[in-house]
Amino acid sequence: FDDRDGLIWLDGAFVPWREARLHVLTHGLHYGGGVFEGMRVYGGRIFRLAEHSRRLAASARELGFALPFEPAELDRAAEELVERAGIADGYVRPVAWRGSEQLSVSGAGTSVHVAVAAWEWPNVFSSAAQERGIALGTSKWRRPAPDTAPVRAKAASLYNICTLARDAAEADGYDDALLLDYRGYLAEATGANLFLVVDGALHTPLADVFLDGITRQTVIALAGEAGIAVHEGHLPPEALERAQEVFLTGTAYEVQPVRAVDGRPYEVGPVTRALADAYARLVRGAL
Ligand code: PMP
Known about the structure:
This protein is an alpha+beta fold. The protein has 8 helices and 16 strands. The radius of gyration is 19 Å and the shape is globular.
């Protein structure tokens, strides 16, 4: 991904894509002192930009560091990148990390760096996957307890779990992994939140030990507008046995139907379709 034309915003300046490098003795690389965001561009506009910038700053605070840029500066950097690259439908990746001043595990004395990259990226899953749904397999990896890891932050270190789970799921022939939390309740996929449809109502895991996705919040609001009941709570895996439809939500996944979990089939049904359509209208209609 590093060998491309274009620009990346790095610590306040636009630099050529290939030159946006850092030192091998970077604290963020050794000890996972990094946080990031992912945003989508629709028709040249970044969806929910301010919410994502706020979450980046909040994630950094959870890891004990402050961003050296105001949210408005980062917003402007992202918007300018999208404009300069002429991106119509794409993705924006802000990232912040502790630098290379010292290599003790202590964060004291490290500078904080921020970069923003953006690229054209119309669809994460193929349109066939969007139509048919994707297959999930339950992972042996779990979301940790809130006194074990900064579980509410979009912290790079937590994505070890996602990479391990995703790679194992793909090796087993699934598209993505479904993770339980440390208590054994349903949690989320590797980059998206989980919804079940039971008799026309939405049931979604309470976001107490994983990222309360901006798409998740948006879809809950859209369901409210459509008169669809939403229940948030601790869901045991057996809740999957009562569901007629299952879908995932995320900036990259949007509203992604699930066709099977561990081989148990689900329909790409009317509630999933209605919410996927409403979401597609919102992200484009908000232009
Ligand atoms: N959970 C994880 C682990 C994620 O990486 C993401 C994507 N940011 C989400 C949930 C969904 O969050 P959002 O809707 O804000 O993209």
